[in-house]
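User: quick one, sequence for these tokens?
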């Protein structure tokens, strides 16, 4: 099987700073000035149930979702699992559960 051609000059992505996979930085929920690391979790890797802070319903195993935590020292202790729609609508709605 032939190998795929790599574009972009062979540059490798920068290593991630934390053991949680880094993720993209996005603004926080409803009026929160902090930045948050955000990782998208595909259904195949979602193996446990979690409580979404946006709607207070379960994010069930096998459901693609978002994991977010604050960009600050010790922020990884505040990881929360959100429904993708709840995370994307966080600016229009308030939280139903306290973030921390």
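Assistant:
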């Amino acid at each position: 099987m032939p190998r795929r051609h790599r574009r972009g000059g062979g540059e490798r992505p920068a290593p991630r700073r934390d053991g949680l996979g880094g993720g993209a930085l996005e603004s926080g929920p409803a009026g929160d000035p902090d930045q948050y690391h955000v990782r998208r979790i595909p259904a195949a890797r979602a193996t446990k149930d979690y409580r979404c802070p946006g709607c207070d319903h379960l994010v069930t195993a096998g459901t693609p979702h978002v994991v977010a935590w604050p960009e600050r020292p010790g922020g990884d202790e505040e990881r929360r699992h959100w429904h993708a729609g709840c995370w994307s609508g966080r600016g229009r709605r308030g939280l139903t559960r306290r973030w921390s």
